Amino acid sequence: MALFVRTLRCFNFPNLYNHNLNRQIVFLQNVNLKFYSKKRENQYQYDLVVLGGGSGGLAAAKEASALGAKVAVLDYVTPTPIGTKWGLGGTCVNVGCIPKKLMHQGALLGESIKDAASYGWDLEPENIKNNWASLRQAVQNHIKSVNWVTRVELRDKKVEYINGLGVFKDPNTIQTITKQGERTLTAKYILIAVGGRPRYSDIPGAIEYGITSDDIFSLGREPGKTLVIGAGYIGLECAGFLKGLGFDATVMVRSVVLREFDQQMAKIITESMQERGVNFLFKCLPSSVEKLDNGKLFVRWTNNEMEQFSDTFDTVLFAIGRRALTRELHLENAGVELIGEGDKIDVVNEQTNVPHIFAVGDVLYKKPELTPVAIHAGKLLARRLFGDSTMLMNYHNVATTVFTPMEYGCVGLSEEEALEQYGADNIEVYHAYYKPTEFFVPQRSIVHCYLKVVALLEEDQKVLGLHFIGPHAGEIIQGFAAAINCNLTMSILKNTVGIHPTVAEEFTRINITKRSGKDPNPQSCCS
Amino acid sequence: MVKQHQIEGYDQFSEFMKNFANTDGEVYVYFSGSKLPSGISWCPDCIKAKPIVEEALKLAKPNSHFIVVDVGSREIWKDRNCPFRTDPKTRLLVIPTLIRWGHPQKLEGEQCEKPELVEMLFTDEE
Ligand SMILES: Cc1cc2nc3c(=O)[nH]c(=O)nc-3n(C[C@H](O)[C@H](O)[C@H](O)COP(=O)(O)OP(=O)(O)OC[C@H]3O[C@@H](n4cnc5c(N)ncnc54)[C@H](O)[C@@H]3O)c2cc1C
């Protein structure tokens, strides 16, 4: 007990030196742990308690359990303001990547049906219509089966699943309330993997009448004419699939589109969405949402010149950013510190300022908020804690894709980042517009099919970043991410023989530099 | 008491499900290999799973239905075009398969031999 009090006091007065020292000590201990199961300590009920059964938490829990640790995972979904809730598995499975990709695919199929007529299929594409209720049902059925498979997996891997909201009682104790009553769990290590939830604008009517990505994929009515507030990737993706499914879609942009991405690419994505009929309201801020007698939503907004506008919509979707669910955890009882506006947790190798408390996934400060990042960090952490691994998570060169109707995939540095880090004199940017073979027959617009490679100017021209806009961008960029991690250079890229006819081969053909000022448009002939 | 039904082959199965209007209670369907003349199934995994499933079934709500479907002989099942494999309602990949009918809860193959998983299927509330 005396020891316990002393530790607590130390948590209350953390200083940098202590903090780093503690981290090192834990690290060294872990290196010496060969087979964790043989060294179980009985002081605590669990070796590891995980807060949050999403991408990161589940990956860590399963891995830890496989290495012999006794593990419990708490997962609880607080319903949205309109009452949407979901099962085990976290954001990605229930209200993120998975339903988003399925609806994106639904929208792309609509385009393909239109193309199909040009390819000889006897159809009447003018009369095709998407049935929202059927699509939603199909998507939700898939999610429900993933929820079930996840529960089976946990049970099979001997991870205890507790459907309750966890809070810290003290640095080693988690409290929760389940249907069966209150529970207190003590653990040697605790992993915070509670992810985040969408924020709403601070304007009248936002919470009462607005929805977010948490609601859209299970919405019980057709979304209809939709205003998406926010132009990050989630806002653009939602507007993109809604438009593709046949709904009127408008994106309200506060300052810039896709702030965290290469801005030239962001501009092309914006234009390609505009070409498809998505409306954009630039430099505008919403001021209120009211519900009219006919059930429609009346939205007022102002632009940066303080001009006022209004329109009615069936749905207003806020996609203005996400907040980590850390405030709810009573972190003060454990001494874990938060940083920055989004209530994030700063970590060194997933370790928080409290040495036995770790964090992975969307709660992390300045780390990519992506499912595979959370999963990989969670797995590696479990191996370091309970196996004999010392492998650390590498958060660099993580590829990602924006699933707008015309997809945008990238890995590595944006052009802006490269210029800032290395200076314009040391950077060479290769770029090209290209024509996907399959676009010719249906005469699809090719004006936004563009790619670029950001490289160092000197010697072999090490590749720093790859950017691709076009069909299947996600599928294409993944392999190049591996290449970048193997120190891809321009000379290797140019000496790689392409697969013809594909869109991915454009990376191997790229040869025009921005510096040359030559026209990056393809020759009129078709290869 | 859980009401038990025994079905033999695809035709009987599709006919039975068509007319099976179960108003309340969950419906569990257990697909396994038909019995040989000796009285035991030709499918060794089904034999292993059977006692586990029967034991866990005791945990199901009393108004549930338990439908045992023998998919046929080894030859019938091994045929890639076996209707149990191709029917979108069943789409079986392996036997045994245990399904809570109309719900995502489903266990396949070796999973049906694990009491903790089979119990979860019969008691799951989500
Ligand atoms: C619309 C949308 C689309 C996305 N698309 C992609 C994509 O295409 N590709 C990609 O890689 N990523 C995508 N993401 C991001 C991805 O979903 C997240 O990066 C990932 O889910 C983060 O995992 P996590 O483990 O940090 O948290 P989460 O998966 O969010 O899981 C956290 C879980 O913890 C629960 N929880 C919270 N607090 C508590 C508590 N106190 N006690 C118990 N449980 C708690 C939450 O309810 C949740 O179930 C998308 C996100 C959104 C919103």
Automatic annotation (TrEMBL), chain A:
Binding residues annotated for NAD(+), in chain numbering: G230, A231, G232, Y233, I234, G235, L236, E237, G321
Ion transport found in the keyword field: no
Pfam families reported in the protein's UniProt record: Pyr_redox_2, Pyr_redox_dim
GO biological process: cell redox homeostasis; cellular response to oxidative stress; glutathione metabolic process
InterPro entries: FAD/NAD-bd_sf, FAD/NAD-binding_dom, FAD/NAD-linked_Rdtase_dimer_sf, GSHR/TRXR-like, Pyr_nuc-diS_OxRdtase, Pyr_nucl-diS_OxRdtase_dimer, Pyr_OxRdtase_I_AS, Thioredoxin/glutathione_Rdtase
Disulphide-bonded residues: C92-C97
Gene Ontology molecular function: flavin adenine dinucleotide binding; glutathione-disulfide reductase (NADPH) activity; thioredoxin-disulfide reductase (NADPH) activity
Top EC group: oxidoreductase
The EC number(s) this enzyme carries: 1.8.1.9
Single GO cellular component term: cytosol
Family according to the record: Belongs to the class-I pyridine nucleotide-disulfide oxidoreductase family.
Origin: domain of life: Eukaryota
Protein name: thioredoxin-disulfide reductase (NADPH)
Top-level taxonomy: Eukaryota, Metazoa, Ecdysozoa, Arthropoda, Hexapoda
Automatic annotation (TrEMBL), chain B:
One GO location term (cellular component): cytosol
Keyword Cytoplasm: yes
GO molecular function: protein-disulfide reductase [NAD(P)H] activity
Annotated PANTHER family: 42-9-9 PROTEIN-RELATED, THIOREDOXIN DOMAIN-CONTAINING PROTEIN 17
Alphabetical keyword list: Cytoplasm, Disulfide bond, Redox-active center
Organism superkingdom: Eukaryota
InterPro entries to which the protein is assigned, alphabetical: Thioredoxin-like_sf (IPR036249), TXNDC17-like (IPR045108), TXNDC17_dom (IPR010357)
Gene3D superfamilies membership: Glutaredoxin
Family statement: Belongs to the thioredoxin family.
Subcellular localization(s) per the UniProt record: Cytoplasm
Domain spans labelled Thioredoxin: 7-124
Name of this chain's protein: Thioredoxin domain-containing protein 17
